[in-house]
Design a protein that fits this description.
Blueprint (H helix, E strand, L loop, with lengths): L2 E10 L2 E10 L10 E6 L11 E3 L1 H9 L3 E2 L1 H10 L17 H42 L1
Parallel strand pairs: 1-5
Antiparallel strand pairs: 1-2, 2-3, 3-4
Length: 140
Amino acid sequence: MAMKIRLARGGSKKRPFYRIVATDTRMPRDGRFIEKLGTYNPLLAKDSEDRVKMDLDRVKYWLGEGAKPTDRVSRMLEAAGVLEKKTRNNPKSAVPGKKATERAEEKASKAAAAVEAAAAPAEAPAEEPVEEVAEEASAE
């Protein structure tokens, strides 16, 4: 029998509350489970002690029996120090989408045009006084 340690949703609409359960993988998410191992309340502050509560001895027992934790539960177990921290790599998550890159390119081109426009008038007045000084020197 394939075992999982996963979250079973409870609570009302827009007020989630989860039980951390050990269950057979063939059972539905909120269906029959073998043992309740803890609770998770995502509405509480991240530093709250009541946000995640687990019976770590029972979790270790089920891991020893071959139960596989889901990704979210494994992150909780890593934070509790039961599992080793995995290195996760999702390089595409930081890449902006097509429209975002178009907006960034448009913004960069406008900024470059503004810099060029600001640089052109700044050079012109600098040249005029030099010419005036040269005219004054030749007049004398």
